[in-house]
Protein: Tungstate transport system ATP-binding protein
Organism: Rhodoferax saidenbachensis
Amino acid sequence: MAVLYQLDDVQVVLASTRGAPPALDGVTLHIAAGERVALVGSNGSGKSTLLRVLHGLLAPSAGTAQRQAGLKQAMLFQRPVLLRLSVQNNLALALWLHGMGWHAARHAALEALAHAGLQGVAARSGRQLSVGQTQRVALARALALAPEVLLLDEPTASLDPHSKRLVEATVQAYGGTTVFASHNLGQVKRLATRVLYLEQGRVLADLPVTEFFDQNRLQAHSAAAAHFVKGEAIS
Ligand SMILES: Nc1ncnc2c1ncn2[C@@H]1O[C@H](COP(=O)(O)OP(=O)(O)OP(=O)(O)O)[C@@H](O)[C@H]1O
């Protein structure tokens, strides 16, 4: 399998937290095409920071982060922002910014919305949607770019069970390489092939999903990760 990302001893010290522990500390890993990697860990453990390094939004303070040349990535942020345009034009703008002509972009935007079952909100303002709709539109916008890798930062946080299922189904249908942060271990079980457990910027466990959810195996790799899983409800 082609290696898409290679991180070696990555450290990230965020400018505004000098003196505080690094947001990432000695992270070494690679991610291959086709993997669906879940990032789990408590608030502030470094999940978002790792996603930003993968995406190229943050450069390591030390160590190296390499990405396959020309890799097409799309990221869904924790609280995605839509512009005060129609939903269709929000998607069209993203496509246009990636080089598509405006007319074709408007057409492709509508197709992407229809594909996600969102044609009903195409004409609505991007600022007048519910939280669940905003999240689904933002995901449709990311997927409209036909990325080779989808990076998701807690894609279903604060969504109701119905919206959560719709988002999960869309991610499953996408089927490409995916890296997602999640506090929902049930979701991790449903979507991931591999799980990384982070604590204070360090990766303490990096296991295939079946091993991660086998308490004995996990315990053997990392007592901290096993303790974390025990304390979280799986639903
Ligand atoms: N913009 C920022 N400026 C300064 N420090 C930050 C910033 N964003 C995050 N941090 C710090 O970096 C560390 C890692 O945060 P990060 O957001 O990556 O964690 P996380 O695992 O994604 O947390 P959560 O589950 O709450 O989203 C934390 O100590 C956090 O306080």
Remarks:
- The two ends are 32 Å apart (CA to CA).
- The pocket of adenosine-5'-triphosphate is lined by residues 14, 16-17, 23, 41, 43-49, 181 (CB under 6 Å).
